[in-house]
């Protein structure tokens, strides 16, 4: 959503009244179980957008501690995140450990849904899934890196993003990275992405379309054969 500032220039805002209320309600119970570490780049439009999103978020709720820094300032953290795309919003648990869930681009619009889900899942890692599916998840050949190419306006994207995040919570060998394709044209070109959501497995295989958790596990089992 865009608003006009006093100088007549458009200022991007990521939260309207409805989404602000949703965030406050969703995070009201948090007591430090989740924090955010953003690694930004200088002279980078997406880093500016990321900083704006986090500033707005901190103005809505104080339940999630937020830290930002420039790439290269914290090499130990960057090594743990292991990202090859920047900037990055990394979600950390109560012990300051990287949860293997991150965002390359502000999780606004429809992706706010996946962001809220991820934060609550980290804080309360309780998922109701069948025992057979859980066994299949634990048996996946890892490590697995999952990048989900999205557009914030895509209504099908949050399901796949959440499926990947759920997998990262349930299997410590899985990493989930949401990528806002509007800001990564070289990424789009490299993987020949024509539609969203796009799932990139280990920077090798590309699959298109939404998937629930069971369908995602089946896809990864096929990939490993």
Report what the structure shows.
- With 225 residues, the chain is an alpha/beta fold.
- It has one domain (2-224): Glutaredoxin (3-Layer(aba) Sandwich).
- 39% of the residues lie in helices and 23% in strands.
- Strands 4-3-5-6-8-7-9-10 form an 8-stranded mixed sheet, with helices on both faces. Strands 1-2 form a two-stranded antiparallel sheet.
User: Which strand order does the major sheet show?
Assistant: 4-3-5-6-8-7-9-10
User: What ranges have pLDDT less than 50 throughout 5 or more consecutive residues?
Assistant: 1-10
At the fold tier of CATH, the topology name is: Glutaredoxin
| Helix/sheet category | alpha/beta
Series of secondary-structure elements, N-terminal to C-terminal: EEHEHEHEEHHEHEHEEH
- Share of helix among residues? 25-40%
Percentage of residues in DSSP E strands: 15-25%
Strand runs, count: 10
Q: Whole-number radius of gyration? A: 17 Å
- What do the pLDDT scores average to? 93
**What's the level 1 CATH class?**
Alpha Beta
Number of domains: 1
**Count of discrete alpha- or pi-helical segments spanning 4 or more residues:** 8
The biggest beta sheet is recorded as: 8 strands, mixed
The geometry reads as globular
User: Per CATH, which architecture?
Assistant: 3-Layer(aba) Sandwich
The CA-CA distance between the termini, in Å, is: 44 Å
Descriptors for this entry?
two-stranded antiparallel ribbon; 225 residues; alpha/beta; Glutaredoxin; 39% helix; 8-stranded mixed beta sheet; disordered N terminus
């Amino acid at each position: 959503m865009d608003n006009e500032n006093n100088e007549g220039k458009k200022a991007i805002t990521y939260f309207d009244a409805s989404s602000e209320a949703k965030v406050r309600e969703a995070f009201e119970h948090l007591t430090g179980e989740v924090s955010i570490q953003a690694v930004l780049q200088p002279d980078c439009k997406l880093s500016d957008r990321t900083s704006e999103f986090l500033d707005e978020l901190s103005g809505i709720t104080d339940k999630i501690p937020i830290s930002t820094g420039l790439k290269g300032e914290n090499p130990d953290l960057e090594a743990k995140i292991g990202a090859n795309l920047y900037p990055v919003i990394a979600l950390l648990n109560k012990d300051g450990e990287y949860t293997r869930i991150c965002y390359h681009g502000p999780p606004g619009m429809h992706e706010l849904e996946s962001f809220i889900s991820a934060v609550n899942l980290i804080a309360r890692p309780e998922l109701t899934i069948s025992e057979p599916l859980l066994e299949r998840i634990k048996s996946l050949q890892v490590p697995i890196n999952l990048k989900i190419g999205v557009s914030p306006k895509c209504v099908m994207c949050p399901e796949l993003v959440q499926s990947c995040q759920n997998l990262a919570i349930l299997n410590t060998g899985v990493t989930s990275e949401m990528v806002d394709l509007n800001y990564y044209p070289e990424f789009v070109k490299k993987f020949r992405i024509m539609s969203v959501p796009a799932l990139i497995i280990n920077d090798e295989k590309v699959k298109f379309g939404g998937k629930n958790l069971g369908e995602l596990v089946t896809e990864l089992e096929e990939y490993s054969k």
